[in-house]
Amino acid sequence: MPEPKRPKGTLTIYDVAGRAGVSIASVSRVLNGQGSPRADTREKVMRAVRELSFVPDGAARALSNGLKEVIGVVFRRGGEALFEGEDESLLFMDVINRGIEVEAQRRGFDVLMSSVGFDDEDVLPRIAAIAGKTDGLILHDRMLSAVGIARLADIVPIVTLAGSPTRASMNVRCDNESGMRALVQHLVIDHAYRSIAYLSGRADSPDNRARAKVFEAEAAAADADFQVGAPWLGNYSAAGGANVIASLLDAGTKLPRAIVCANDQTALGVMHALGRRGIKVPEEVAVTGFDDVPVARHLHPPLTTVRQPMQELGARAFDMLYSRISAAAGTPDVVLPVQLIVRESCGCATNPASRAGNASIARSGT
User: How far apart are CA 305 and CA 293, in angstroms?
Assistant: First the structure.
């Protein structure tokens, strides 16, 4: 009697190998995208898969590769909030994490999200515990030293965001230099503002340091009066930006003609604080941001800023991590282009004539 046909769910790669007339190893390489199987071998395997209606079991495939098919994403939680829900909205990180998630799902991976506080001490053991549950980690911003990253990299591959590549990790970031250069030139050359300040992000942030360095260089090159340093130290939050402005005004400090903020959330707080003191933006003080989070275009006035490709940033971070997990070669440091977005908070009308330095420029109305 002929052998009864088994349910599809009980089919294995042994059945595929038998139908294709190739080895189990060849079937595994074709289905897992590993090695370089010959074209005729690949065709035999895929024909057998179609004929048997074989569906590879994800858990079994992961087990055969020694993979969990899970990547971890760790970010830093904010502190004080100026507006209700500000910490929960996480504007910038939300969009990046969405990019990671979409790309991970496309590859059949799950994402384990976790967070650490800015003031948390000795976070390495906590992050190492997360690493033990994953095939690799994506770390937002700077939360570990190079030594800490190297120790983690002994467990799983590491990709950092907005940091610097190390011998043990890869990094993806946006072009802070060209973005800040275009923004400062627009303010001090196109608008001829002679006094300008940089309201910074957290002092330990690589993005913040890169933006501050270019801000000072460009302002000095244009012979503008510029202010930086401790009185202008923010923390990337709206509350941080508002507190800086309140402290300066309470001390009787005369504000510059333009304030360049380290990110859009800081700019949101600055505009809020200026409005509460009756100071008009941009008529009395121009304000700009960096990121172009979705709310930026809806502020009053709409915010001039530098657009970072946030979702692409997340997607590229996953791609880099996946290449390392798959033992494929990858570029250790990826830099994505940015775009100067001119709106009204800098003093421009809806369609101004502007220059953009090395960054591309876009003009946006309300």
Answer: 9
Look at 10-24, 47-61, 172-186, 299-313 and tell me which has the smallest mean pLDDT.
47-61
- In angstroms, the CA 248 to CA 271 distance is 14
pLDDT digits (tens, 9 = 90+) for 270-327: 999 999 999 999 999 999 999 999 889 999 999 999 999 999 999 999 999 998 887 7
Length of the chain, please? 366
Angle at 271 between CA 265 and CA 274, to 5 degrees: 140
Domain 8-65 in this protein, CATH class:
mainly alpha
- Contact assessment for residue 256 and residue 223, using Cβ atoms and an 8 Å cutoff: no
Q: How far apart are CA 335 and CA 313, in angstroms?
A: 9
Helix (H, G, I), strand (E, B) or coil at 239: helix
Same fold, 70-174+310-336 and 176-308+339-363: yes
Kind of pairing, strands 137-139 and 70-77? parallel
- To the nearest 10°, the Cα dihedral for 227, 232, 236, 241? -110
Beta bridge partners of 159: 138, 170
Percentage of residues in the chain having pLDDT higher than 70: 83
The neighbour count for residue 304, using CB atoms within 10 Å, is 31
CATH topology of domain 70-174+310-336: Rossmann fold (3.40.50)
Which distant-in-sequence residues (6+ apart) come within 8 Å of 42 by Cβ? 30
Check whether 86 has a pLDDT greater than 80.
Answer: no
Q: Residue 116 in contact with residue 143, Cβ under 8 Å?
A: yes
Predicted pLDDT at 93: 83
Q: In whole angstroms, how far apart are CA 45 and each of 16, 26, 63, 112, 195?
A: 7, 8, 20, 34, 69
Give dist(CA 250, CA 349) in Å, integer. 32
* Residue ranges of domains in the chain: 8-65, 70-174+310-336, 176-308+339-363
- Residue 243 near residue 231 (C-beta atoms within 8 A): no
- Identify the CATH homologous superfamily for domain 176-308+339-363: Response regulator (3.40.50.2300)
